[in-house]
Write a structure and sequence with these properties.
Helix content: 55-70%
Number of helices: 9
Distance between the termini: 86 Å
Structural class: mainly alpha
CATH architecture of the domain at 88-230: Orthogonal Bundle
Order of helices and strands: HHHHHHHHH
CATH class of the domain at 88-230: Mainly Alpha
CATH topology of the domain at 88-230: Tetracycline Repressor, domain 2
Radius of gyration: 24 Å
Number of strands: 0
Length: 231
């Protein structure tokens, strides 16, 4: 009769024999526990966070998930499909950063002041994300995809709005509050976005890279003030 110790020893020997060289367990061709698609997506997000869009490689994502590369094709047609899913997640994270700034606004402000503060909050969240999550920020804008009429929920924050829609909502509030003339509302998203995105690129890749955080925050607030008044 086998003792419990003998059973354990036998099980270990079988596992080692199945593992092959060095006792390492081979990569799986199937994924029995959890959601493989979500696991691959999370691996892709971490790759993008560390190295931007070029770092999102399907083979590396499968390696991190512990499965053979072919297993990924049940969920992603190829590297571009994984990148697009990661890009959507990056946009959702950007939207969340913008929503966090909106949530910090002081309550009880007059409508005009509230509208102006909302626009600044959206821009502040955008720039904060660009500087703190540079890899994801680059990934979010790595393809020239259209933003108008994009209703993909994977790109939205907790409010159900994506970054472009959050900016549009802030501009609509300015019109409602009488701060922005309705005649100047069409296309205003692109004017505001261009200015803020331009500063973001100067800070992460351009001649302003490496400036002290205090200085970059001061530049950001001055720019947002200029955008508000310019609109």
């Amino acid at each position: 009769m086998k003792t419990s110790a003998n059973v354990k020893t036998s099980a270990k020997a079988k596992a080692k024999a199945a593992a092959g060289d060095g006792g390492r367990v081979p990569m799986r061709s199937t994924y029995r526990h959890g959601d493989l698609r979500r696991t691959l997506l999370e691996a892709g997000i971490e790759l993008a966070r560390a190295g931007g869009p070029d770092a999102v490689v399907l083979r590396e994502a499968t390696r991190r998930a512990g499965v053979v590369p072919n297993a990924a094709y049940r969920h992603f047609g190829g590297r571009e499909d994984l990148l697009e899913a990661v890009r959507a997640a990056a946009l959702a994270a950007l939207a969340t950063a913008m929503e966090e700034e909106l949530a910090r606004l002081r309550r009880g402000l007059a409508p005009a002041e509230q509208a102006r503060a909302s626009l600044r909050a959206v821009g502040t969240g955008y720039l904060r994300f660009a500087l703190s999550e540079t890899g994801l920020f680059r990934t979010a804008f790595s393809t020239p995809a259209a933003v108008e009429d994009d209703r993909d929920p994977a790109k939205a924050g907790g409010s159900g709005l994506n970054p472009f829609e959050l900016l549009g909502a802030a501009l609509d509030r300015m019109v409602t509050a009488g701060v922005l003339p309705a005649s100047r509302r069409p296309g205003a998203e692109y004017l505001a976005w261009s200015a803020v995105h331009g500063l973001a690129l100067l800070l992460i890749d351009g001649p302003l890279k490496g400036v002290e955080p205090r200085q970059s925050r001061a530049l950001a607030q001055r720019l947002l003030g200029m955008v508000e008044k310019g609109l």
